[in-house]
Amino acid sequence: MKFVDLVNLYEEKKKKYGVDTYKHISELLEEAKILHKKDWEKHPTKKKDHEQSWKGFKGSALERLILYVLEDAVQSLGLKIISGKKFERTYPKNLSLELKQVKKNLAIDYGKFGFHLPDVDLVIYNPKDFNVLAVLSSKSTLRERIAQTGYWNLKIKNDALTKHVKVFFLTLDEDGTLTKQFPTKKGRAIVEIDTDGSYVLSKTKIEESNKVKMFDKFIEDLKKLLN
């Protein structure tokens, strides 16, 4: 299965659901899983474990799908959004001058242990001055990476050069961690205290707060960072 197949599934749902398509990403991925298995059965992995193969594909697929969904809206604000893997998988000498500067502006100072990039899925920056406005992590559930996101937010905020960068978590919230504000589950507590916020792509109604919102609020909140 290729990413273009996911895009086609998304565009089909967009015709049906319009601006609410983001609420149906989990449903889309379930459909994609069936197609993925058909392809996998033609060339199964050595351990013959489709679930393991799908898990790796799903994480990457969600990240790329969110990038696809957000890209036009982000660019309409005069900003750019790129995959964090661009920095990790490209030799420094092969990065454009623009991305070299963005990478420099995002790196965290670990003193004598050097500069290191935070583990994030997507990076939003201003191409005019290469200033990084926000970094995004994306997962199906909070338990997969929310504590790590909280850690990187702490490191980013404690560095004078990156303290302005917002750290957001985008999730399908398939385990319902964010559904209710009180009684508060651990994952939601981490979002509320240790991140700049989370945006949920789900049909399930959630109790929103200043830090936990539905995905359709993301672009409006991003606009506020430009003021």
Description:
- There is one protein chain.
- The mean pLDDT is 94.
- The strands form two sheets. The protein has a six-stranded mixed sheet with strand order 1-4-5-6-7-8, sandwiched between helices. A two-stranded antiparallel ribbon has the order 2-3.
- A hairpin with a 5-residue loop joins β2 and β3.
- 29% of the residues are buried.
- α1 packs across α3 and α6 packs parallel to α7.
- With 227 residues, the chain is of the alpha/beta class.
- The N and C termini lie far apart (42 Å).
- It contains eight helices and eight strands; from the N terminus they run αααβααββββαβαββα.
- Helices cover 44% and strands 15% of the residues.
- It has a single domain, classed as Restriction Endonuclease, CATH 3.40.91.
- It is globular.
